[in-house]
Amino acid sequence: MTKEKIKVGIMGFGVVGTGTYKVLTENSEMVKNQTGAEIVVEKVFVRDRHKRRAVEIPESLLTTNPEDIIDNPEIDIAVELMGGQEPAYSYMMRALDNGKHVVTANKELMAKKGRSILEKADSAGVGLGFEASVCGGIPIIRAFKRSLCTDKVERIMGIVNGTTNYILTKMAQECSSYEDALKEAQARGYAEADPTADVEGYDAAYKMAILASIGFHSKVDINMVRREGISKVGKRDIECGKELGWTIKLLGIAEETEGGLEVKVSPVMLPMEHPLASVNGVNNAVFVNSEAVGELMFYGPGAGQMATGNSVASDIMEIARQIASENKMLPNCSCFADKVFAEECSSSFYIRLNAMNKPGVLGRIAGVFGSFGVSLESVLQKKTEGESAEIVWITSKVKESSFNKALESIKSLDAVNEVCSIIRVEANGHC
Amino acid sequence: MTKEKIKVGIMGFGVVGTGTYKVLTENSEMVKNQTGAEIVVEKVFVRDRHKRRAVEIPESLLTTNPEDIIDNPEIDIAVELMGGQEPAYSYMMRALDNGKHVVTANKELMAKKGRSILEKADSAGVGLGFEASVCGGIPIIRAFKRSLCTDKVERIMGIVNGTTNYILTKMAQECSSYEDALKEAQARGYAEADPTADVEGYDAAYKMAILASIGFHSKVDINMVRREGISKVGKRDIECGKELGWTIKLLGIAEETEGGLEVKVSPVMLPMEHPLASVNGVNNAVFVNSEAVGELMFYGPGAGQMATGNSVASDIMEIARQIASENKMLPNCSCFADKVFAEECSSSFYIRLNAMNKPGVLGRIAGVFGSFGVSLESVLQKKTEGESAEIVWITSKVKESSFNKALESIKSLDAVNEVCSIIRVEANGHC
User: Fold this and answer.
1) A76: which of A35, A39, A114, B264 lies 20 to 30 Å off by Cα?
2) Model confidence at A345, in pLDDT bands (50, 70, 90)?
3) Spatial distance between the Cα atoms of A388 and A383, rounded to a whole number of angstroms
4) A207 labelled catalytic
């Protein structure tokens, strides 16, 4: 007999949990019409039964015992929206052991333990959805898994963290300092009291590990992602970038290079004409280059109760449709390849430094770059103040090791007072 | 026993057919790894066996007899890439009658006969994919069917025709006339010798009928789509738009209004800041407003051998994965709702007219607008030449019937020499 009700247990009832509940209950008729069965939230695991919620929910659904979901034979789909590693991971694995389908929004867990989770799900023959783990409301995981699955992805460039994009947008549009923009982000609830996970690029690195794994069919370990945050980006760099026709974004980039797969997160100078350059505020966007399709961009809200809740709900519905048709679940893991990782990255760089305002200094610095094989695209003497001069250098695409050696040597020159900033440049990202 | 080979027959071997063949053969290993079975092109139906092809293909695969595909019990998936209504429709229906899964890129057929095709597919329990029928390489159908399926779509705005977007981009960027831009588009192969289907909005209307049907879960008959092309857009309107901070795009818009569902295709003045405004050349983009997610945009190539070929291939793979798992096909049709269609549209309008350069004329015209209840946002006297003056009017959002009555009355004024152009304005599309 075909199942008439598919029962869901939600673990964690914060922003995303309440959003998921709202989407599923408010749109239940529409969902039922497409699923062929009713999707019912049967239990919600919370830490505190009496906490005030952003959503109305019958008392009877709440439980403080996770076993009411993960060990409950009535539950078909366990939805993990608690975040963090533990106890989320243990709950998820136990739910899988018990033959439950799992949907999660947990980027940290998918980035760190994705392989073991997916393998367990596949060997149990259950579904595992994680659309909500990357870019909130943008259906980017499904785009890779169901549409770009027949294509060869060459490069993924993403603005995958809304907090840092908000800060950089504010710095660019209102000439704010990093500190002021961060304060504003905290006041609006976009940044945490301890903003490290966002501003130092950890959150973006998790998301890029997930996107790169799916896009390149190869498990990307979070340790393989080079990571750099935005806390060193100065107001002055944004100004200099503007004069060059560039804007600064915290970009995740995953690409196949001659040396292997490269995945990195860092501030990047991007030409104003690039489609990613006009993605502002807390929005996210992922720009993909692939062999057959060419250029695609997916743009939308990177977070939010309802937006992320919808991504969770769509994963639940995808699994529910298979259950309603009494189908086997399709394999979840698509990481069949074992790509080599690049030992080192190549990039163009923007370097802003402060040097003595004396004849011959420019030439001496240029000479050091040259002696380490770092060729230069341009040099701009920005302003001089008494005895010192601000100079901006743009290099060609160079190996990071050569660049770093040149930089060490430049720092040790008497004529160089300070190397103020170093930012990657992506001048040719968009053809 | 699980199927090891899933056999595909391709009908039509032009641009999209050869692209599909290339994607499937060049990426066969990757596809097999994800599908759990090999996808093999078994037969290709062509009109002329000896025609030179853009792709190398074994002679033995070619056939001039469509029955080698539609009646061939070996074939699992029949892929219709012939275009047009007949014989494509008959072949497709016979393939469905014979229990074959069908994948098509045929927007005209899906817009005109979508309901009968989907109903037959569902009653036969087979899969029916049509991702390639809208926006070439952009996975927009799947985004609606698998991700926005749990959300309430409020509005779809799309640049869904590359040819007209190329022409309008050229007019805007190079101050070309419509005629010159069209010639250039024809020279580059973007426009046909008879460009009617593109420039008069028929192609865009097919695509909007499909998108609106899926987005609003309600079969949108092609006759319900209001359609207007770009052939009357003047160089001068693009100039005037620029001064107002607007750009002109041929937009498909589908939205729920108080009066019901409205679907239309027409040139639209769009603010430069809108994400769709910077979609240039032959690119396509679809901008969606929905209740939970908010704003999403999908951007990419609207046509092309490999891009559209990939959309076809991804549909084939989706069906093949279910076959490989010995699953039932999930229902294809999601048009469970029966929405009421709006009897008339409301819009803001831009009107450029030529009137006598005399005191009192502005006031008289404004009076006529007012007497038909059409309120005005702004009036701009653009330039005067001797006895005549060019005047641009921007109305508030008004009912089209009131607007048309006002316009008739204005045309009959002695002081009005000519109404040069009328273009819709979408000033509030993006919040």
Assistant:
1) A114
2) confident
3) 9
4) yes
| Facing residue for A328 by CB, picked from B138, B139, B325 | B325
* Pairwise CB contact (< 8 Å): A143 & B139: yes
Average pLDDT over every residue of B264-283:
95
Percentage of residues in chain A having pLDDT higher than 70: 99
Q: Which helix (H) or strand (E) holds B86?
A: none
User: Per-residue pLDDT averaged across A381-395, rounded?
Assistant: 90
- pLDDT range class, residue A148, cuts 50, 70, 90: very high
Q: Find out whether B196 and B313 touch, Cβ atoms under 8 Å.
A: no
In a domain, A430, yes or no: no
Catalytically active residues of B, by annotation: 207
The dihedral formed by the CA atoms of B339, B340, B343 and B345, expressed in degrees to the nearest 10: -40
Whether A293 sits inside 8 A of B307 (CB atoms) is yes
Q: Is the pLDDT of residue B431 over 60?
A: no
CB-CB under 8 Å, B278 with A291: no
Does A313 sit within 8 Å of B293, measured CB to CB?
A: no
* Closest chain A CA to residue B148: A314
- Residue of chain A nearest B39, judged by CA positions: A150
The model's confidence at residue B430, banded by pLDDT at 50, 70 and 90, is very low
Contact yes or no for B314 and A150 at CB 8 A: yes
User: Is the pLDDT reported for residue A382 higher than 90?
Assistant: no
Q: What is the pLDDT of residue A431?
A: 36
Would you call B24 an interface residue with chain A, using a CB distance cutoff of 8 Å? yes
The predicted model gives B384-410 an average pLDDT of 94
Distance from CA of B215 to the nearest CA of A (A): 12
At B238, is the secondary structure helix, strand, or coil?
helix
Dihedral of CA B113/B115/B120/B125: which sign? positive
Interface contact flag, B294 A137, Cβ < 8 Å: yes
Q: Do the Cβ atoms of B325 and A327 come within 8 Å?
A: yes
Selecting from B138, B151, B317 the residue whose C-beta is nearest the C-beta of A150 gives B317
Give me the residue from B143, B149, B296 closest to A317, CB to CB.
B149
Does the beta carbon of A333 lie under 8 angstroms from any beta carbon of chain B? no
Residues B310, B288 share a domain: no
A151 close to B (CB below 8 A): yes
Q: Please report the pLDDT score of residue B429 as a whole number.
A: 47
CA distance B332 to A202: 40
Q: Which of residues 273-302 of A touch B (CB under 8 A)?
A: 275, 278, 290-301
Is A311 found in the same domain as A243? no
Q: Domain for residue A336, yes or no?
A: no
| Active-site option among A7, A113, A170, A207 | A207
- Looking at residue A427, its pLDDT comes to 81
Which residue from B290, B294, B314 is facing A149, i.e. has the nearest CB?
B314
Q: Which of A301, A336, A354 is the last residue before a domain boundary?
A: A301
Q: Which pLDDT score is estimated for A428?
A: 64
A202 and A272 part of one domain = yes
CA distance B134 to chain A (A): 14
Q: What are the tens digits of pLDDT across the range A232-284?
A: 999 999 999 999 999 999 999 999 999 999 999 999 999 999 999 999 999 99
Q: Which domain holds residue B102?
A: 5-137+305-324
Nearest CA in chain A to B216: A30
pLDDT(A1) > 70? no
> ipTM score here?
0.96
What is the pLDDT at residue A383? 82
- Answer yes or no: do B182 and B116 share one domain: no
